[in-house]
Amino acid sequence: MTVPERSRPPLPFREFLVKVHSRCNLACRYCYVYESEDRGWRTQPVGMAPATAGRLVLRIAEHARRHSLRSVRVILHGGEPLLAGGEFLARFVRGLRAALPAATRAEVALQTNGTLLDETVLRLCHAEDIRIGVSLDGPPAVHDRYRRDPAGRGSHARVAAALALLARPEHRPLWSGLLTTVDPTTDPLTTYDHLLSYDPPALTFILPLGNWTVPPPGRVPDPARTPYADWLVRVFDRWYGSAGRAPRVTLFESVIDLLLGGASGSEVIGGGPSRLAVIDTDGSLTLSDHLKTTYDGADRTGLSVHRDPFDALLRHPGVVARQAGRAGLCAGCRACPLVAVCGGGHYPHRYRAGSGGAGHDNPSVYCPDLARFIGHVARTVAADFPAMATATATAKAVTRTEAATRAKATAGRTPGRRGAEHDG
Amino acid sequence: MDRAEPADLPDLPRVPCLPDLPDLPDLAGLPLEELLDAPNPVLARAARRVLDRLMAEEAPLAAYNSSAVPIDDPLV
Fold first, then answer.
1. Concatenated DSSP letters for A159-199?
2. Residues 58-77 of chain A whose Cβ lies under 8 A from any Cβ of chain B
3. Looking at beta carbons, which residues of chain B come within 8 Å of A357?
């Protein structure tokens, strides 16, 4: 990879993705951990040993103390994290919160396939203050196409039962949302309506992990074809037209925020600096696990919680590259007028093998889809404000500094009557 | 670290990919304060988020793409 010189101090990590278990009780056909280029899972311990977990919480606390972090987010991940068992998870989370400095708050989340979610797990999450995200791709015919157990049985029925439990009023505060992998061959509104039927607080649509060497399904070389944007546009129009009654959608909100001159809250759009560290079950400090889709070993650094502080990972070229912002993009992206919004897209999507050490110096493999989708959102929003849009045709776009000045001038103002909190 | 290049890789696109890119409306010039009263709550909330984040000491976290991540980015 080409890594620009760092012009400012590294940003400390604030997200810690902890692989508490390296295996899964499902065998999803598109899984980036087990079905992609990387084979690292084969040599990982099945579960994180208590000694490794103990060392890890001390390292996170050390990082929080050294950088005076006011909060950290720890995501319990796998494989399937619930295979680690309730006792391990409870001890880990308690140990983490006990080790952190008093001034550092820990936000703990769990990303699960939902098949093992039951009342016992929910009691644990209540007791330890753990938020839960569940993966669901759509109705049974869609979800079970890829998300099956090793015997080939679909998992939809088990996930649906878990979501019915999670949606109960007493458990709903634990629920952070649904994670859905977009399949452009499906009907977008049928999928969207099915997701809505569970009344989730938020939806995260993810584009399948792919790149220029191993393109995502359906992402053909013809830039005029935009199957993923076509899918997203249909859902966006329904969501936008719901006048705020629909759940929050991370990608949609981030694109609107970026178009308005703001910043994205997601790593997949906008090009904000990544502040994520991933810890494997053996204590290895690694880069984003999404890089497993590029080449074998792409996420590995040689660092370990048993030897190295997180500051050592901050100096790794793979972290520097993801904190470089626009300077870390290829020349074509830097010159593109859309870069302020797309930010070059999701880092793993830019990869191309054999680029002479510059594997990520490319546009996103989803560039045509991103351009079409962003353009559609921009026009949809502008259509709500024809007078303003006309006025801005000759207006100089505000910089963030200018906007911040304006923002401070209006500090304390509350949202309009219809701008209250999302009502789900 | 890269793998060998397969022979049949697609050509990289010429950017910009969007033929009508120059016609894109410039929403970054919209007055955020006025958007707070936008008829569509989606936009009103967006304006609120942008204003709040502009006033924050640092940009929001470009969070890991996961539904486990609360969308409000309370991390400060």
1. HHHHHHHHTSTTTGGGEEEEEEE--TTS-HHHHHHHHHTT-
2. 70-73, 75-77
3. 1-2
